[in-house]
Amino acid sequence: MNDKQRLKELAQLFLKLGIIGFGGPAAHIAMMQNEVVVKRKWLDEQHFLDLLGATNLIPGPNSTEMAIHIGHERAGVKGLIVSGLCFILPAVFITAIFAWLYKDYGQLPEILPFLYGIKPAIIAIILGAIFPLAKKSFKTVQLGIIGAIVLVLSLFHINEIMLLFGAGFLSLFWFSIKDKNSTNKNWIPLGILPVSQTTLVATGNWNLFLIFLKIGAILYGSGYVLFAFLDAELVAKGLLSRSELIDAIAVGQFTPGPVFSSVTFVGYQINGISGALISTLAIFLPSFVFVALLNPLVKKLRNSKPFSVFLDAVNVASVAIIISICIQMGVDTITDWRTILIAFVSILIAFNYKKINSAFIVIGGAFLGYLLTFV
């Protein structure tokens, strides 16, 4: 089979997954495994698992990076680009349509009852998504202490990027005290440190590009951590309201494809179509670069004990930050018996019926919100 045929197959597969891929990264990866291992046999099970492990060692959205990895394995650099773009673009296109509709109609009375019900449902979905991650992340008392510290500091609005990397380095320091054989040369590469925390308060596209490039380059953990970063970089600086952020999360939930496509919605609210395009390009660009450049180093880094210690702490910090944001969203959103009821029902469904697609919870919340406005 020649490269042209391989690229065509990759485009067809990842366009399909980008269109039907509801349910978040875990669902996306399960679909990819079924397509490329079981059905098409492009990869064997072990190699697929190795690539999946690689996505957890570098920043960025895991399912998008998995698509990029598969494309690279199948058709080199061209395959990397084709797979990544075809997986991302359907979500971006659909999200852009919602962003335009929201910008023009989101404040109309006909739309508000639906958004009123969506917001508490979103909190339930995020809690349901991070609960298994929390159980897996809090492996030791040490990690539990780090998580508690991060949660408290996050509630006091300490910069989320500083908290994530601070947790990682605190854990490394703790590890170095316990392990007398560890040395500085075993610590993680300084290349993944966050870039300067210069405050960017203008709404120009260049500043949007820098903000989202920074987030895309250093964001570890679940895609839901993205919203904590957006809260710190945009809401706290007055570029976006928290209400708009919650609505962006909602759009990310009831559209298919990567959750990171929510930045298309955010960019549009801030600076129209150009802001949407710039923000989307910036958030996804680092994933392509990391997969292309760091793949040869993945095995060595994964086998490094200090690097593993660092990532464990980052994961715990990620969970703590998400919980903090949920608390803040709850204060802003759950304000009366209607929103309490919607949140309660949504949490019951999210925790007890895990196979239900999160899009249905969002739709159900919107429907309940609409009905309860007449009560």
Low-confidence stretches: 182-202
What does the largest sheet look like?
none
Structural class, from secondary structure content? mainly alpha
Rg, rounded, reads: 20 Å
- What is the overall pLDDT average? 83
In one word, what is the shape?
Answer: globular
How many helices? The count is 15
- Count of folded domains: 1
User: Which band does the percent of strand residues land in?
Assistant: under 5%
Number of strands: 0
What string gives the helices and strands in order?
Answer: HHHHHHHHHHHHHHH
Q: What's the end-to-end separation, in Å?
A: 63 Å
Give a quick rundown of the structure.
This protein is mainly α.
Structure overview:
This protein is an all-alpha fold and about 375 residues long. The chain has one domain. It has 15 helices and no strands. Helix 1 (about 5-20) crosses helix 4 (about 60-105), helix 4 (about 60-105) runs antiparallel to helix 11 and helix 5 (about 110-135) packs antiparallel against helix 15 (about 360-370). The model is unreliable at about 180-200 (pLDDT under 50).
Helix and strand topology:
Elements: H1 3-20, H2 25-39, H3 45-55, H4 62-105, H5 112-137, H6 141-155, H7 160-178, H8 205-218, H9 225-235, H10 242-254, H11 262-294, H12 298-302, H13 305-333, H14 337-352, H15 358-372
